[in-house]
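Question thread 4412

I'm putting together a teaching handout and wanted feedback from people who do this every day. The idea is simple: show students a protein as raw sequence, then show them the structure tokens that encode its fold, then repeat with a second protein so they can compare. Below is the first pair exactly as I plan to print it.
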Amino acid sequence: MESEKKKRPARAYYPEEVRDIYNALTQGDNVEQAPFETNKDVFMLAACMGYRRDMRKPLPSGKKADIRLEVFSENDKDILKGIVLASGGDVELLENFGYLDIIEEYAYAGIYEVKVRLMDTAGLALWNFVESM
């Protein structure tokens, strides 16, 4: 009898310790200070930044925040899957949301780069974002 692969929840996780970064970039009335609409948008940027910098960081044990996978568009999911494949991940990881483990590590490492570029640099986060890309 062939063993059944474990299916992980359809959620992308990030450590609770970085929630303040996500909140700072998504909450508030000033779009120049909080230029992103959703945590998913910040997560996507962080994952791409982590991949771009070739930085992965395992998520610590403990409390985690999550983003339901249903809020990611098909294009978002394709980008995330492409990152996994481009980084040498096995195509089998694309089944049962297995690719999210790798993406979460890229996003966790990348969120600190996002913070440095957008929040720790003089100026407003939106314009720091535009200038850094």
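The second pair follows. I'd like the answer to focus on this one:
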Amino acid sequence: MIRSLDLILVAAMICGAVWTFSIKHQAEQSAEEVARLQKLIQAEKEKINLLRADWALLNQPARLQKLAETHAEELQLKPLKSTQIAKEGELPAIRPPEDPENDPIGDLVETKSEKDPLTTGSTRVADE
């Protein structure tokens, strides 16, 4: 009788050890996953900070003024008048449908890209 009780206790001890080992293994895997995700989050935060810095560089007023002066003929920009500023209630609720046949900005971009590829401060034109 005692021997069968001993065998049952040894089997319970082995089952407990296996269960403890599996829980420990799952916890280690979860910790590794958390560490991997934290690295990914940090990398994404660094990318966001880099993009914000790039955005700030591209939106510098002096740079935009130089671009506006360089492309003044194509853009035909004029100073803003106070009558052109609308309040929220004055704007139409629904955007009018776009007419693909009559798109002056799209035509301007297409003709400009055919003559000379557009360049910005953050990209280089590939040598052909």
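Top answer:
Good format. For the second protein you could add a caption like this: Helices lie at 2-58, 61-70, 72-75, 104-115. Residues 13 and 110 are 77 Å apart (CA to CA).
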